[in-house]
Write a structure and sequence with these properties.
single chain; about 240 residues; alpha/beta; 5 helices; globular
């Protein structure tokens, strides 16, 4: 009850469910329509906040009073799960599920993401946009994560046209709301960011191989938001 109340109060500061006006970017001649975002909070109470602070301290060397971030990156993912409810339930608990042996040594803090996009393009906000989510190694402290339901078997880009449009709309919304955002990055590209000042991971042995959401999906989204001039990761790793 306490956890739900805490998160709901935080979410209210970002407006309630429904339509939200994003300031139209000056780079487009097409008016941006109100974007509909549905709030569907994951469990994010005092324990998860404390684990997040500890993660920031142990992995990034920062001692913080809160888990608010200044967004610099929008980072896109797929869930590798075709069912919305199953995807949501993996992000819901405060602690990692037992099958995440690949990252549990780094922290018991569960993975999360600020947004989850359903197969029909419906956008769900899972937590306050400027709270740190654990969704990518090295870049959590400056990134907003968007998970997309799909990527069956973690092998193929089967994300829908509706999801592609939703991601484009969400990037426009976020860039308008947070002018500090500079980069648009796919999860499979995250290691290329190691050469930037935004990379904070202290553990040189903590890396995983990612394939999501793939080059085709990223090209589609980048083409859709080309006028925003968002940076791509430096070439390299």
């Amino acid at each position: 009850m306490t956890r739900t109340l805490l998160l709901c109060i935080a979410l209210l500061s970002f407006t309630a469910c429904g339509k939200e006006e994003a300031k139209p970017p000056v780079c487009t001649t097409k008016p941006i329509q109100p974007i509909k975002i549905i709030d569907k909070p994951i469990d994010f109470g005092p324990d998860r906040i404390a684990m997040t602070k500890e993660y920031i301290k142990s992995h990034y060397g920062k001692v913080v009073d809160n888990i608010e971030i200044t967004p610099k990156i929008i980072l896109l993912h797929w869930t590798a799960e075709m069912d919305f409810d199953k995807s949501f339930k993996r992000l819901l608990p405060e602690k990692l599920l037992s099958d995440r042996k690949d990252i549990v040594k780094a922290s018991a803090l569960n993975v999360s993401s600020q947004f989850l996009v359903a197969r029909d393009g419906t956008i769900y906000r899972l937590m306050p946009e400027n709270w740190m989510a654990r969704h990518v190694i090295g870049l959590n402290y400056s990134s907003i994560g968007i998970e997309n339901v799909g990527g069956k078997g973690n092998k193929i880009d089967d994300l829908t046209p509706a999801q592609r449009q939703a991601n484009i709309d969400l990037v426009f919304y976020l860039k308008s709301k947070y002018p500090s955002i500079e980069y648009l990055v796919g999860h499979h590209e995250y290691k290329q960011m190691e050469s930037t000042s935004l990379w904070l991971e202290k553990d040189k042995g903590y890396r995983t191989v990612k394939s999501d959401p793939g080059e085709k999906f990223m090209n589609d989204i980048r083409n859709g938001v080309k006028c925003l001039d968002l940076k791509t990761p430096p070439k390299g790793k």
